[in-house]
Amino acid sequence: MTENILTANEKYARDLGADLGRSSDAVQGEFLTGFAHSLVIACGGRIETQLAFMVDTLTPNALDTIIQLGEMAKFRKENPL
């Protein structure tokens, strides 16, 4: 690969997201788990500011999807399988 992974992520972020969106639930879960873990580490455990910055860049559809994900996560946390 001629690009480093960070440059590739910045260049292809939307394409990577589109590919992951068509992946299995297990792959999507692993992606979100890794993303959340890395975000917490990168932000020193204080992710509120970074979350606010990210939310400001979302499309309305993406924002609705993230809200639904959060609602489902909260429901599952309160009502485990």
What's the main sheet like?
none
Count of alpha/pi helices: 4
Quaternary class = single chain
Write down how many β-strands occur, each being a DSSP E stretch of 2 or more residues. Answer: 0
Proportion in helices: over 70%
Number of domains: 2
Q: Describe it for me?
A:
- The chain folds into 2 domains: 1-44, no CATH class; 47-81.
- Helix content is 77%, strand content 0%.
- It has 4 helices and no strands.
- The protein starts with a helix and ends with a helix.
- The mean pLDDT is 90.
Essential attributes:
2 domains, mainly alpha
Produce the secondary structure layout.
Elements: H1 5-21, H2 25-42, H3 48-55, H4 60-78
Overview in brief:
By secondary structure, the protein is mainly alpha-helical. 77% of the residues lie in helices and 0% in strands.
